[in-house]
Write a structure and sequence with these properties.
By secondary structure, the protein is of the alpha/beta class. It has five helices and seven strands; from the N terminus they run αβαβαββαβαββ. A seven-stranded mixed beta sheet has the order 3-2-1-4-5-7-6, sandwiched between helices.
Length: 165
């Protein structure tokens, strides 16, 4: 999906993309966890150097890869894995995302700790969720050592941006 296709994306995905917009940089090495088919990742792929798309569903990732290939998006890496135990090294990513999935995770705190662990110092960590409030997301991030910068609520979702320590 390209930004020109953003209008056809679901409202919360469009809002998440707009929320992330100030942090996007062509040099970013990005991670999206609980990504499903990577709808968010595919929308922002042309605005960053590389995106690693992680989800526990092989079928969702296969569909996401098919869609990325159809759009000739070559800077996405699709990886099946557990968001609470990522295989990436510490301080790997300059931008980390999780859209509308923490509220369904058995241990959202473990996922957020992993997101902070794999983020480079000062990296933006962007979370959104329809089940967790901005205050709950903020508490998860600060509990993992990140510094919250801003929050927003729109279209039944909470959005929080923080920076890795």
């Amino acid at each position: 999906m390209t930004v020109t296709d953003e209008e056809t994306a679901q409202g919360p995905v469009r809002h998440f993309f707009r929320f992330a917009e100030p942090e996007l940089d062509l040099n970013d090495i990005c991670l999206e966890v609980h990504a499903g088919t990577g709808e968010v990742s595919r929308a922002l792929a042309h605005r960053v150097r590389q995106v690693t798309v992680v989800d526990s569903s092989f079928d969702a990732l296969t569909e996401g890869k098919r869609l990325a290939d159809r759009e000739a998006q070559t800077n996405l890496i699709f990886q099946c894995g557990d968001a609470s135990s990522l295989p990436q090294l510490n301080r790997t990513f300059t931008l980390v995302l999780c859209h509308d999935a923490l509220g369904t995770d058995a241990d959202p705190g473990a996922v957020v700790r992993e997101l902070v662990r794999v983020s480079r110092p000062g990296a933006a960590i962007l979370l959104s969720d329809s089940r967790l409030t901005a205050a709950e997301l903020r508490d998860l991030l600060t509990g993992a050592g990140a510094e919250v910068k801003r929050t927003d609520d729109a279209e039944g979702h909470s959005y929080v941006e923080a920076f890795a320590p």
